Amino acid sequence: MKRPILSHLRAGVGALALLVLATGVFAQEPIRIGWLSSLTGPLSSAAIAENQGVQFAVDEINRAGGIDGRKLELITRDTAGDPTKAVNFAKQLVFTEKVHFIIGPVNSGESLATVPIVARAGIPNLVIGTVDELVDAKKYPNAFRVINTNRQWIDGANTYALDVLKRRKVAVIGDTSGYGTSSAKTAAELLEKAGVKPVYSVLVDPNKTDLADEMNKAKAAGADVIMPWSAATGLLARLLNTRGDMGWNVPVVGHPALMAPPIGKLLNKPEYWGNTVAAGYVSTTYDAKGKLPANTQALIDKLHDRLGKSEIDYMLWWVALGYDTVRIVEHAVRQAHGTDPKAIQKVLANTKGLQGVYATYSWSASQRNGFPDHQIMMNQANSFKDGAYRAAR
Amino acid sequence: MLSALIAGLATGALYAAAALVYNVMFSTSKVLSVTTGHTAMLGGVFGAWFLQAFALPLPVALLGSMAIGALLGALTDFVAIRRVLARSDEHLWLLSTLALATMVQQAVALWWGTEPKPFPRIIPQEFGAGVFDQKYWLPVAVAIALAIGLELFYRGTLYGKLFVAMSEDIFAARARGIPTERIRMFSYVMAGAMGGLAGFAAGQLTFAYFALGLTLTLNGFIALAVGGLGSNLGALVGGAALGILSSIATYYVGGEFQQTISVGLLMLVLLLKPEGLFGTRNVRPV
């Protein structure tokens, strides 16, 4: 009696094995992506929008069967904008979760702390912080920047102020945070390189309740353009309010936060937002006919399909950036035929003209900044519509 | 320069109001609660919410903001002070109030968001009034009113005298039958309402911003230490001095030294006159 039972058992196991192979229950190992995102805390609005793009791309790829049969597994960690938490989560993702890629963190301050850790572990890191020091082909060969650098924003704004507006008497206003201080310094350096010494430079506490003195001093110094370098929307709104209350119609040209939708709500009068220009992107700028680039429009259409037809009320470029990071993972895995870090590094370091929504990316053996200069576009700050902006004239 | 002085005075008035809140809480408990600045933060945030989301009439929104501040005051006593004082003489209240303040700030950040939001005009006035704008003078008026009100309260009411009695010697007060725990709870509720009022009055200056609390807690403490712990006049003078000095320093040397100068002022006063400008030196009879 024992033999027939055993043979039935063997046959059953064999059938099960066949079934498993046929249905792919034991499919290939998923591609694990660690996503360090400050979904709460400072700059959470950018992170929440980026998260939409990341999640959207992951779902889209998985619905289409994954990458070479491997599904994407997104492991999100909320750093709350805190570098200490970011470091702990980076270690957890790399050493415990054994992820194949790290995207983020969102804030440059966090990235400064995590990039060396991820680099030491040899895991590919898609960097989305703008501080120039974050990438280095020799020190962090696995770190590839997807977003533009801070210098590219500043260059774009300086070029607009000097060459388009033909202004030469520049007032540079930064905030006292690490980011504001270094940005204001870089802005002044680049202006001087272009032969223009700022007539007035000042650093202001980001929570300073009044900017009347700074603006009066800038006016007294003869400034014909104000260039603020701060991501603090409260400070920027106070600057625009002060300019409006003074009745001084000097152009304000600077940081992308100048056109963040929350600024509009902080202004004493809507017209105070006029004559204000901020660094933005070609990908999220309407052309003369009111059309967006085809890739951007396609993403908007897909977002509308998913989120409904109501107007997009956040800056679209954050979504596009998040979306592109996952598409870059897809590109790297397909070209490297797997997730071996060395092969991924080689593929990314040889990537030329990879078409994304946010930008077209190119990296090289010595260049880890993938965003091209010419895709920075100056926007009218008060022209927000469905996530995008009009070009500044 | 005049605008720097006025802006400094207005900010200093807010610090002074925070110092007054410290004083009221300290009088009955000898505790310097980290939630002090958060009562004002809640006043600003909830004031903006009541006025904008529900379009409540101004007096109702103001009373609502004061009630929210009072609630935090009561919560501070109930959660972070009562048990700690009952079980230990050590300064563990510093940690318990810090923990509560952090939780409150995080909760507001999650609900309200981390970006500053606008606070509507309280009195009809055109923008562009310069140094006469209400955003400068409302906090100043409220700080002065709070200081005068407190003096009248201490001198002219039974509860005020109970506060003073507990401030002098809490054990003697208890021995004489004063319900010290109830009086302390009352003082925290009152201090919270004062903070809510100050935050509401300064809303146009600070915007409705979740991170305002810790700034006010720190600068209110500096104002208190400069003016003298327990002195309402000292709180006003200390707050105004801190606000104006910071503003002038920023005007002449730039914002990067603003914090250094604030803390430098504190160090200087602690070295030269540790009891503060209007404080009294504690002398222990032997």
Mean pLDDT value of chain A? 90
Radius of gyration of chain A: 24 Å
Rg of chain B, nearest Å: 18 Å
Helix content percent band of chain A: 40-55%
Work out the helicity level of chain B: over 70%
Structural features:
heterodimer; A: 393 residues; alpha/beta; Rossmann fold; 2 domains; five-stranded parallel sheet; three-stranded parallel sheet; 12 helices; 44% helix; 16% strand; B: 286 residues; mainly alpha; globular
Model description:
The complex is a heterodimer of chains A (393) and B (286). Chain A has a five-stranded parallel β-sheet, sandwiched between helices. Chain A is α/β, with parallel strands linked by helices and 393 residues long. Chain A starts with a helix and ends with a strand. Helices cover 44% and strands 16% of the residues of chain A. Chain A folds into two domains: 31-149 and 299-374, Response regulator (Rossmann fold); 151-287 and 379-390, Rossmann fold (3-Layer(aba) Sandwich), CATH 3.40.50. Chain A is globular and about 90 Å long. In chain A, helix 2 packs across helix 11 (316-336). Chain A has helices spanning 2-23, 44-63, 83-96, 108-121, 150-164, 178-193, 212-220, 233-246, 261-266, 294-307, 316-336, 341-349, and strands spanning 31-37, 72-78, 101-103, 125-127, 143-145, 170-175, 200-204, 225-229, 252-254, 276-281, 285-286, 354-355, 360-361, 376-380, 389-390. Mean pLDDT of chain A is 90; it is low at 18-26. In chain A, helix 4 links the parallel strand 3 (101-103) and strand 4 (125-127). Chain A contains twelve helices and 15 strands. Chain B is mainly α and 286 residues long. Chain B has twelve helices and no strands. In chain B, helix 1 runs parallel beside helix 5 and helix 11 crosses helix 12 (258-272). Chain A binds chain B through residues 40-45, 175-176, 181, 202-205, 207-210, 212-213, 216, 233-234, 237, 241, 244-247, 262, 265-266, 268-269, and chain B through 1, 3-4, 7, 10-11, 106, 109-110, 113-118, 127-128, 130, 205-207, 209, 211-212, 215, 247, 250-251, 254-256, 258-259.
